[in-house]
Amino acid sequence: MKRRQQGILTGMPFMTHVSARAYVDDAGRRMYFAKPPARIVSLAPSITEMLFAMEAGEQLVGVTDFCDYPPEALKKPKVGYSNPNLESLVALQPDLVVAPNDFLKPDVIVRLEQLNIPVFILADKNVEGIFVHIQTLGRIVGRSPKADTVAMQLRQQVAAIQRRIQGTTPVRVLYVLNSQPLITVGPGSFIDQLIGMAGGINIAAKSAAPYPRLSLEAVLQEDPEVLVFPVGKAEGISESEQQAWLQWSTMTAVKQGRLHQISADWLNRPGPRIAQGLESLAVILHPDSITSSQVGR
Amino acid sequence: MTTETTEAMRSWLPVGCHAVEVESLSFRYRTTEGQGRMWTLDHLSFHVDAGEILGIVGPNGSGKSSLLKILSGLLPAGEGDVRLGGISLGKRSQTDIARVVAVVPQEYTQVFPFTVAETVLMGRFPHRTSRWWSMGIGDETANDLACAHQSMVDTDVLSLADRLVSDLSGGERQRVMIARALAQEPKILLLDEPTAFLDINHQIDICSLVARLGTERELTVVLVSHDLNVASQYCDRVLMLKEGGLCRIGSPEETIRPDVLRMVYGCDVVVDAHPQTGRPRVTMPMGFARK
Amino acid sequence: MLTVHRWVAVIGGLLLACVAVLVLCLQFGATSVDIRSVATAIMHMFPGDLAASTRLETSEIIMVQIRFPRVLMGFLVGASLAAVGVTLQALLRNPLADPYVLGVSSGSALGVSLAILFGIGSTFLLLPALPLFGFAGGLLALLLIYRLAQSKGRLPIHSLLLAGVILNAVLTAFIMFITSIMEPNRSAGLMAWLMGSLTAPGYPALAVFAVYAVLVLAVLMRKAQLLNVLTLGEETARSLGVETEGVKKQLFALTALLTGAIVSVSGMIGFVGMVVPHAVRLLIGSDHRLLLPASALVGGMFLALADTMARTVLAPAEIPVGIVTALAGGPFFLYLLLWRKDRMF
Lengths: 297, 291, 345
Known about the structure:
The structure holds three protein chains of three kinds.
Chain A: H1 2-11, H2 13-21, E1 22-24, E2 30-32, E3 40-42, H3 45-53, E4 60-62, H4 86-91, E5 96-100, H5 106-114, E6 119-122, H6 127-141, H7 144-165, E7 171-178, E8 183-184, H8 190-197, E9 200-202, E10 213-214, H9 216-222, E11 226-231, H10 239-244, H11 252-255, E12 259-263, H12 264-268, H13 274-285, H14 287-296
Parallel strand pairs in A: 3-4, 3-5, 5-6, 7-9, 7-11, 11-12
Antiparallel strand pairs in A: 1-2, 7-8
Helix pairs in contact in A: 6-7, 7-13, 13-14
Chain B: H1 2-12, E1 20-27, E2 41-48, E3 53-57, H2 64-71, E4 79-84, E5 87-88, H3 94-100, E6 101-104, H4 116-121, H5 142-154, H6 170-183, E7 188-192, H7 200-216, E8 220-224, H8 228-234, E9 237-242, E10 245-250, H9 252-255, H10 258-265, E11 270-273, E12 280-283
Parallel strand pairs in B: 3-8, 3-9, 6-7, 7-8
Antiparallel strand pairs in B: 1-2, 1-4, 4-5, 9-10, 11-12
Chain C: H1 4-27, H2 35-45, H3 50-53, H4 58-91, H5 104-117, E1 123-124, E2 127-128, H6 129-149, H7 157-181, H8 184-194, H9 203-222, H10 224-230, H11 234-239, H12 244-266, H13 272-284, H14 288-312, E3 317-318, H15 321-339, H16 341-344
Antiparallel strand pairs in C: 1-2
Helix pairs in contact in C: 1-14, 2-4, 4-9, 4-12, 4-13, 4-14, 5-6, 5-7, 5-8, 5-12, 6-7, 6-12, 7-8, 9-12, 9-14, 10-14, 13-14, 13-15, 14-15
């Protein structure tokens, strides 16, 4: 019965054509592209990285102010970030805008739709979601084979990392987004998932918010074994602020000298470099098991 | 009591000096300097005797309020000399002036909940004897309290002592301000339009209070008033200002006259004798008033 | 009327209440710490016991290094905010004035924003960086307001207010600009700071702030009688022998110096400086010799309690203490506005 219905639907030539070129974005909106878009604007650094990774860089005509990877992205025209400049965006005459669900000013998408510019929204839920996004974008922009290869390689890398940390004891981690006041990542945030995948336990797991201001008392009580400081060009915790953590001499992380920096871009951007980010985090959390496997490789 | 007060006044006032001596005083506001504007006060000379009530009258902008502010040291005398008790204002400190002159402002608003007693006690500020460690707590001496008490009795506000100043009516508040001025134990009392915002009942009330205090406390009183009848009925002498210059000074009979008023105010008024005191009384002419 | 007896009774009572509140605040936090360890922890804090500090339990570290300095800092900041509020309300003769009205706070906030923008770390020239930049920004704003408001050697109140309001607007625009060009992850940190928050200071920083605040409060206290006279109006105050120009300049400088320090350690914590003086005035009257110290003590207790709420309501997460003070202070202020109109305005 079911099979027959499907047969009827797919059997209609008109429908097959639509289903091949129609996509549903993460906001649940259905979009139809007659041919691969040639002028794409990316509204997130992670999306820019995805498009370059699938060799669709030439189709990219506009990026955000913070798109700095790969270096070719720096040469693309800039349109702003959370509150992009609509005029320069429209002037680029895009036939597709790919936008993240977070950070963007809500009325921007509405305005773009009023201007008949299709906006495809990507919501970052989890790591597997990144690979699905890469494949979906690949089909939209006509780079499906390359995108599928990229996604497959990433899946393999992630699986390899997880195999290597298998059997290790999870490590208690504090990820310091901001020191004064202390802001960290909590459940529901992307980085919280990465910590779990890299064999760590986020000590802010009991906080109700994705980016909570964590009580210093709770930090000492939970006694993290590793402190991770994201660093980068435009963000991150400075050296002297990291030094300030050394005053908590009873903390295991301080006693064992396990204060580590990590490239913020790798973890903050749900893009193709996520495997690198996950690996560096795993190295920080489980140096023994990872190095040994690396030696063996 | 009277001899004592007179004694005190004598010690304050050197022999041969008037309570207030103004000599060739000229003044203009700094903001109008160099603009060739007229002097606000122009070569003014007069004196006020001890125990006298002098009324200053004149049209709007004739310099009445400026003159009062100069007498109380709130505005610096421009040119000329102002002496209180024989000593130039310039040679007295602000506190020193405050021990001789008290000012009752035209209007007083208090946004904070101060009681009447607290407000009157603030009049003792120029006489405070603060010890450096006390931070002002318990500075009020028995003398301060007695003085504030007497001032409240004299102005009939003792029953209001614990009320908030902001809750009082206009007339009550004016009396509290007079009480506060009296608590300063001044030799000279300056009042700026004391009846401006009061109804007729309270006008009479405040005017008789000032007249009574002048006598009882042998105060020298200078008051500025718009109301020619107030000046005529309650003042010993009247000073008439016109465009910053002294137009005339003398007894009410000499100053409140139709010809003088026409010259100063530029309009005709009816002046007759007050049925009770015989002093000049000013009434608006019939003009275009409806019948 | 204020007598020595009444002053001692009120202030003494409030001091006792303060001790009770501080002990209460020390008992609550993200982690539960036994009250006895509060005592042992406090014993351990005294010098000569440095060797013991290495042996301290985590719960004692939490008490000694985190909770105690933070509660004390909250108390000091609250006391300073309330005292500055009282002073400015009297100086400006405006019951709505608060410590942030004169633009000094925006200068401090801008200083901190710049420090965060340029990624200057927790120390700068060996001093805590954010407070240092905040204080420097506040001082510059103070000088600027002074220059703007001063005319011919005088400091008219209305130009002081006007200069403050305008500078506030301009500096706030600069802060907005800085947040808008920042990487969103980092501007979140700045916003969190701007919202007003207390962190556990190190003891040297706490000591510096405490000495500074207590000194300024003592000088303000000595000016309390002058504040009383100033509420009569500037001209009346002068006719009572007050050198109003000098007093205004001193009070403005003192309050601005303290505001700069407050903002530099705690950001913008609203409502304490405005509401606490009101409440205390309703209870004990307006005489500033009593009102000023009483408001400082009540303000200290209020902020210490509010911060305890901020620390515990969503534990282990915290909420900005400015939110708690606004939520507690806002309705109270509405009450004053609607039902006590006759008294207050």
